[in-house]
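User: I'm putting together notes for a lab meeting next week and I want to include a structural view of one of the chains we've been expressing. I don't have a solved structure, so I'd like a prediction I can at least talk through. The sequence is below, exactly as it appears in our construct file.
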Amino acid sequence: MREKLFEKTFSDILDPDSGSRIRLIQPGLGLATFDPCVPRPISARGFVDPFQLRLLEESIRSCDWSSLRALLFVCHYPAEVPLQHADHQKGHGLVGAEGILKVLQEVPVPICWLHGHIHHPWRFFSPSIPNLTYYNPGSPLLRRSQGISLGRWVLDWDGQRIQSEWRSLPAASAWFEASKE
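Assistant: Thanks for the context. Below is the predicted structure for the 181-residue chain, given as structure tokens.
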């Protein structure tokens, strides 16, 4: 049973009949959401619903971009991934991602695509849209060969642009690793 966590988290932003809208959350900073999660018993892939895509396109087309300097785009799945994670796209990709990319090409301001479906942290500059950057926090408690990062991306908005920085807690990570032995 799907818990509709996305809808609960963004309920004050989402239109009840759509998963796509742009809202001003700070002067100059917009937020757009897109929910590609669909209940699938076998597949972990997301799906770009044509209705949501049309609403996103209409929102972007009608937006007053003169009042915005940056856009946060929240979507559980990334449309593109770094080469070292391309194998994750096979069973975890976003079906129809090219539709979102085509729509986002019209956005004239920097776009920060916030996602998390693939549980490895990265910042990735889109090869197809110069003003699009993906941010994936990964899964902070997922054990990897390099240990547990206990990290996250911190995005700071100064009213003009977004600064990003990866921050982690190495001391806490070492304690957590030692406690597991």
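A couple of points you could mention at the meeting. The beta strands are 21-26, 29-33, 46-47, 70-74, 94-95, 111-114, 122-125, 132-136, 151-157, 162-168. The chain has one domain: 5-139.

User: Perfect, that's what I needed.
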